[in-house]
Amino acid sequence: MTALDKLFENNKKWSSKMSQTHEGFFEKLASQQKPEYLWIGCSDSRVPANELIGLLPGEVFVHRNVANMVIHTDFNCLSVMQYAVEHLKVKHIIVCGHYGCGGVQAAIDNSTEGFINNWLHHLRDIYNTHADAFDAIIDPSEKNDMLCEMNVIEQVKNVCRSTVVKEAWKKGQDLTVHGLIYNIGNGLLQDLDISVKCFQNLKSIIRKGVSRTLNVEE
Ligand code: CO
Description:
- The structure is a single chain.
- By secondary structure, this protein is an alpha/beta fold.
- It has two domains: 1-31, no CATH class; 33-214, Carbonic anhydrase (Beta-carbonic Anhydrase, Chain A, 3-Layer(aba) Sandwich).
- The chain is built from ten helices and five strands, in the order ααβαβαβαααααββα.
- The chain is globular and about 55 Å long.
């Protein structure tokens, strides 16, 4: 008996169920993957990419990190994006945040030390840029919600400004970047309505998204 026995047992059951319900499933996947979506989400165990959008293995390429961030010096995330866009030719990049994000809360509380603290500085930058709007909110969970949404908007902007995406658009590649937010409390996704299809529209879409989230006039 090892600590992972349960997982191996689950895996065997899953594998045989998939083979029974989808003929030739693993044989097909072994030779290729053709996902249409790249998912950039939070590492939070309550936000599993494939499950919550009902997609099978092979249908979504996934990158997850603490608080679903796309940082221009993060070669891990940038490599995933490059592979997804240049080789897999995904048609959609989805940045998905979630309400009640622990990373976002830790940034607000300033409660971390070590590497993660550096990582979360990116969130504090967003907070500080709009400090008036955030400081005006008294309810802690409302404040968390707002920073979760603002973070998604910021990361959509970062995806669109990345060399990988800019180059793809320049070449006329069909690629849309979306910003979604997931509600852990009811399992539902919400579109933040900031989908960007070309670099020219980026600024106005982001500006509108920010005004909506901060509830201020444009
Ligand atoms: Co999170």
